[in-house]
Amino acid sequence: MGNELLRWRKQATNDEWVRLAALAKTSVGYLDQIAYGFRRASPGKASAIEEASKHFSGYVPVNKENLVFAPQRASAA
Fold first, then answer.
1. Share in percent of the chain as helix, strand, coil (round to 5)
2. Which of 4, 34, 35, 55 would bridge 66 by S-S if both were Cys, CB 3.0 to 4.6 A apart?
């Protein structure tokens, strides 16, 4: 199971990424942390991201389950 938010991020423009964050009522930095595996989204935030991703034509929407149950990166510590 790949990270769908990272896939979405790589397809989108920077302006679309900023718009996704605004629609999901979060920050670009928090989306980056989720996309790159440093954090998992809460169920509520995952639903908000999924709904926000549906506002963009031409992209497959992000699946909320993928965000909640995504494996995290191993820490360097």
1. 55, 0, 45
2. 4
The single-letter DSSP state of residue 66 is H
- In angstroms, rounded to a whole number, what is the distance separating the alpha carbons of residues 70 and 49? 14
Kindly write down the DSSP assignment for every residue of 38-62, as one continuous string: S----HHHHHHHHHHHTTSTTSPPP
Supply the DSSP symbol for 21: H
List the structure tokens of 56.
């963009």
Which of 20, 12, 18, 11 has the alpha carbon at shortest distance from 49?
20
Q: Which tokens belong to 51?
A: 């709904």
What does pTM read for this prediction? 0.87
Please give the average per-residue pLDDT across 15-20, as a whole number: 97
